[in-house]
Predict the 3D structure of the following.
Amino acid sequence: MVLAGVAYGQVRTADVLYTFQEATPQPGYRLGDECFVALDTPEQWGWKVKKSSDSVDVTAEGHTVHLTTRYVSGKMVIPLRKVITELGGQTEWTPGADTFNVFSNLTQVTVRNGKVHVQSPLPFKPTAFFLNPGRTVIDLDGARIAPGTEQQVDSGVRIGQFRPNVVRIVIQTDFVPKLPEGKISETKNFD
């Protein structure tokens, strides 16, 4: 009984930032290194939550994850880190803050003969622009390069973690390429 009281005292409110979205963070709870969210939070990301007595099935990105629920501050919650890890994503707490960041681990980045292909298990948001002299830049918001990311690129192409939530692809070109106009919607596959 004492242990339950100590664990309860360690619960803090937190913000959940699905890093490819421009929306405000969703509310959550921090308990140790795990982040818990209420059952309606994943539904705001387009995920389906099917509840039974003390467990739920979360269906997202073509996968179903079975989770045991618990109560925090009177709300039924699920462990978000477990879901994201099983879906192929990555999470981390912002140092010195109770903000839980969700990233998509890229599985493949191919830049061959002027064509770009990026694959990921979770959505990210691409942005493309041209810089003089002769550089095409593609930023992938909400993405991370993981140890298993397969990279196949031509010479003159650089791929790197530009910011904690942005992978940047820089392609040397001697012409101004045709780039997508306006905002590109979130995607798991980008060509």
User: Anything to note?
Assistant: DSSP finds three helices and 16 strands in the chain.
